[in-house]
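[audit] Reproducing an earlier prediction to check determinism. Same input, same settings, fresh worker. If the tokens differ from the archived copy the diff job will pick it up downstream; this log only records the rerun itself.
[audit] input (238 residues):
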Amino acid sequence: MRLRIKLALAGKEIPLNYKHYVQSLVYSMMGMSDKFTQLHDVGNIIENRKYKLFVISDILGHFKINNETKSMAFLNNGYFELASIDEDILIEVTNYLNLNRVIHIGKVLVEHNGYDVLSPRLEVKDVVEFESISPVTIYQTEENRTIYLEPESHEFIESIKQNIINKYLLVYERYPVEFEIKIIQTKRKRLVHFKHSFFVTYDITIGVTNATHELIDLLLCTGIGSKNSMGFGMLKRL
């Protein structure tokens, strides 16, 4: 399930480093039930890795960068997308939006213009192509050092593939059919700030061969790479 949350941003400025504000907003909209507290604090664990099984896009729209205030000045309204394989998450978010007209992005009050429920395209092709709408980050930790992987590397692709397999096991409790990932295009390298950290990220287009309906749905609802619940690795289908 996937939502597009529409924001009345025309004429407003929000911080350039907004991602942790949006993540906090999403968690606050979920509420404080035991299920969502567990999701926030622990998540779903497989092979000593934690997965939240939801993903957030960038805030999208037309804006100019104000370098003096380190903010994004929007020329028109914008939106962000939220997706999860767990429909309970999005039901709670829509309930919140139905009851609350104004949301916070940091200290900025923003009215929302409702939301659209988006229907994923699940039809299968020889190669199913996706484009990132929040940047993808892949890294390894060695001797307390963070090493970021580049899309051109074999390790980058294998890490994406294993990430997908682990999520598939969590959701469906079985392995997916054999599939392959190909990097079609690396559009941009970005250094993205999240709270007190920086992440090396990439805007990319990928192709997936031998994709099933279940695999396509998983990719669209959980994203790829690391830190999906922090706003990294969300995809749209081309």
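[audit] rerun output stored. Observation attached for the diff report: The chain has five helices and 16 strands.
[audit] end
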